[in-house]
Amino acid sequence: MAEDLTPTAGETPNSAEDDEPTVQDILDARDAAIAVIDAQIAATEALQTGGVDPIDPALKKLRAKRTEIEKLTTAAIAASSELAMAIKAMKKATENLAETAKAMTTVTSTRNHN
Amino acid sequence: MRRRYALLATVAATVVAACSPYDFSAPVSSLDAKAKALDSAVSAGHQQLVSDVSTAYQRSLIARRAIVVVSGCNKIVDPRLKEPTDEEARAPVSREPATTASRAPRQPCGVYLPADNGKPFRDRSPIVPELADAVKALTDYTAGLAAVTNAKDRADYDSAVSDLASTVSSLVSEAGGVGAAAGAAVKAGINLLGWIVGTALDIQRFNTLKAAVNEMNTPVRKGKPFNVVVMAIAQQVRTLAQQRRELLQDDITALKASLGPQISEETYRLRLADVNAMSAALDALNQSSVSEAANALMLAHLQLVLAVNSSNPNIQNLTNTLKALGDKASALQTALSTASSAKPASSHNKGS
Question: Which residues on neighbouring strands pair with residue B69, listed in sequence order?
């Protein structure tokens, strides 16, 4: 009988995940993009003349771009499998912690009842 | 038999002296509090952003001297009262509180432009579900760490054992026939047994603490789970802060343009107060750093890992990091929750 090589949940082949950027990769890309925008904002602000400035629309666009980068970064991290795996591991560790903590308090409450 | 107990107790005492979970009680409680502060930062950042959007809308009404309608004030949510059925009582109940359940978008009771009448309120910056999950996972995890290092549990346990020993001892003494000496022996036996069980539970707690923090320090792909979760939450806070910044800067720019000799002194004063309030909120946002708070939280967790794995843990180092983290977390929370309004609804009611 041929061996069933269909991956089960949590045992997906590594290749796709290996190609996917990590959370740190995403944050590094964000830092690089934000640095460019911030330099553009600084350069535009240097042209400020006071009062109602003609640079205001340009700054507004740059600020919107900065926000867009942050939103895209957040969305990319939220979609990353690394975050999903980290949350899963954290929940598992939390379950173990809760069970162990419960053991002593259960003994205490049982004795108190007695 | 008694010698065997004594030997077991000695061995247990040696193990526990080297690794008591309660040595970490104070720093872990502090770590838990700081994780909750990060959680609050997400909530505060989101709520204040929603509030800013509402304030900006009010400002735009005032700036336009707009004709408005009052809308959304007649929709009352009040489900009918009814007795629960047995089936409903047996049905599994979600552990999530009802308040977090998603509700249909609605237009809150308020004043709107006629063109906006009836349009449901849309949260333009909702917390991403995966990141809300990350926040919950983090705060549950640190609460779990705090639970296994809670020294009060051991004190309560010891007290319960002591009470039980006294009660049983009295019963034996009063039973007659065996006498007070037997009662004292029973009491000592229960206390010793209770102590051995308690010690075993302490060891179990320490081992679970050690396993949990080490697991959170073992990369899932490239990043360590604790760090990945904290960085993800920090990015969500960053995004909320940037959205607030953009809104405030755009509002300041618009309001600044309306300042000048063409308006009355009182209107000028009120608008200036508004610009100043928004500038102060913006400045607080610019000066607070979510990265610093997140970096310190990750450092504190790593120091906890090192301390738990060490036979001579450096608790002071961990305590110092947590103290610094406390200041950073407070500054972040303050910045994210700083109101950006000098009550615009009443401040611009005087015409120019």
Answer: B112
Domain presence at residue B233: yes
Query: What residues in A contact B158, CB-CB < 8 Å?
Result: none
Is A108 an interface residue toward B (CB < 8 Å)?
yes
Return the pLDDT at B100.
Answer: 38
CB contacts, 8 Å: A114 with chain B = 164
Task: Supply the mean pLDDT for chain A.
Answer: 82
Q: Where are the domains of chain A?
A: 21-47+54-105
pTM, 2 dp: 0.79
Look at residue B117 in the predicted model and tell me its pLDDT.
Answer: 86
Predicted confidence (pLDDT) per residue in B284-338, tens digit: 888 888 888 889 889 989 988 988 888 887 778 778 888 777 777 777 777 777 7
Chain A: residue whose CA lies nearest to B163: A112
Confirm or reject contact between A66 and chain B (CB < 8 A). yes
* Biggest alpha carbon–alpha carbon distance for chain A: 82
Is the dihedral angle over the CA atoms B292, B293, B296, B298 positive or is it negative? negative
A chain contacts of residue B153, beta-carbon cutoff 8 Å: 101, 104-105, 108
How far is residue B19's CA from residue B250's CA, in Å, rounded to a whole number?
Answer: 56
A85 → closest Cβ in B131, B221, B226? B221
Query: Mind listing the pLDDT tens digit for each residue in A47-78?
Result: 876 655 677 889 999 999 999 999 999 999 99
DSSP string, B62-118: HHHT---EEES-S----PPP-PPPHHHHHSPPPSS-GGGS-------SEEE-GGGTT
Please count the structural domains in chain B: 1
For residue B198, being part of any structural domain is answered with no
Range of the domain at B258: 23-63+109-150+207-347
Decide if A78 and B129 are in contact by the 8 Å CB cutoff: yes
Whether the pLDDT of residue B98 is over 50: the answer is no
Q: For an interface test with B, give the residue of A49, A104, A105, A110 to mutate (most B CBs within 10 A).
A: A104
Q: Does residue B120 belong to any structural domain of this protein?
A: yes
ipTM above 0.95, yes or no: no
Measure the CA–CA gap between B205 and B215, rounded to whole angstroms: 15
Q: Would you say residue B251 lies in a domain? A: yes
